[in-house]
Amino acid sequence: MSELIRNKAELQDGLDKLSGRVALVMTMGALHDGHLSLVRAAKKVADHVVVSIFVNPLQFGPNEDFDAYPRQLDKDIGLLDTVGVDLVFAPEESDMYPREPLVRIDPGPIAAVYEGATRPTHFAGVLQVVHKVLNLAHPDVAIFGQKDAQQLALIRTMVADLNMPVEIQSVPIKREESGLALSSRNAYLSEDEYIEALALNQALVLGKDAAQHGAGPEQVRTVATRYLDQAPGVKLDYLAVVDPETFEDLVAQDAPRGDRGLIITAAWVGPTRLIDNMEVTFHA
Ligand code: AMP
User: Checking DSSP bridges between strand 260-269 and strand 272-281, what pairing results, if any?
Assistant: First the structure.
């Protein structure tokens, strides 16, 4: 059984009882098998696993779904118990933010594009909470999902630029058999929207196939974009082919540094905004 911890002071007490390597998995709850794959990866690389559950207000824009975001702590703890974790840190908002934070993290240029262009304050809010929870839990390793690839790139950049004493590891995207990437926001989809949402993964697969057959970044982008542009019920926000570390647009580059790329996309399916991505290798 995991120990539920509701504030910073208790967290320190809980951590003091653990010995050996500690891995941290940060979540906003409404857990699914994607989150559990992070926990399983954490268990493989550490003696103890701490999972945080906190719907971080700072990373939601004024017209986003902060209030509607699914909250189901008891169910989440039940799911975590099926895998086995040591501590579940689920603080109150007043404990995490006793007042409006005055010192803020500037996430820099990677946060200005794609997700950051549509959600201008999102990544500053993400890095603020990631920095805080890493400071509170001071794990040896922290595990994040490739589902949020731009977030992962930013966390790696923050840890490198601020010399934070933690190792960052990532876990591949967990998908349903249909191909849809697992997401807490999938709960918002109606039956019809669920079917429409499959187009995101299908577009990425088409792009990846094109790259396997020799297409370059621009052609890959065209193939995948065309598919989503004509997909019923889907309103494309962006689709791009980027460097997985810097998020620079590979289409705009004359000579990409390597052969690795990431197709990233965000789209509205009804009122729900979904993101997905897929790694590609270019065979020049
Ligand atoms: P969230 O609760 O949405 O903030 O996600 C918490 C962590 O789980 C992040 O590191 C996400 O990237 C990761 N995650 C969410 N969905 C998936 C998925 N389908 N596959 C892998 N990791 C995921």
Answer: antiparallel
- Does the beta carbon of 125 sit less than 6 angstroms from any atom of ligand 1? no
CA of 91 to the centre of ligand 1 (A): 19
Q: For residue 125, what are the CA distances in angstroms to 31, 59, 68, 154, 170?
A: 21, 4, 18, 12, 20
Ligand 1: residue whose CA is nearest its atom 7 = 27
Q: Which CATH number fits domain 3-171: 3.30.300.20, 3.40.50.300, 3.40.50.620, 3.30.750.80?
A: 3.40.50.620
Span 21-53, pLDDT tens digits: 999 999 999 999 999 999 999 999 999 999 999
Q: Is 35 in the pocket of ligand 1 (CB under 6 A)?
A: yes
Does 54 contact ligand 1 (Cβ within 6 A)?
A: no
- DSSP reduced 3-state for 14: helix
How does pLDDT run across 165-177, given as a tens digit for each residue? 999 999 999 999 9
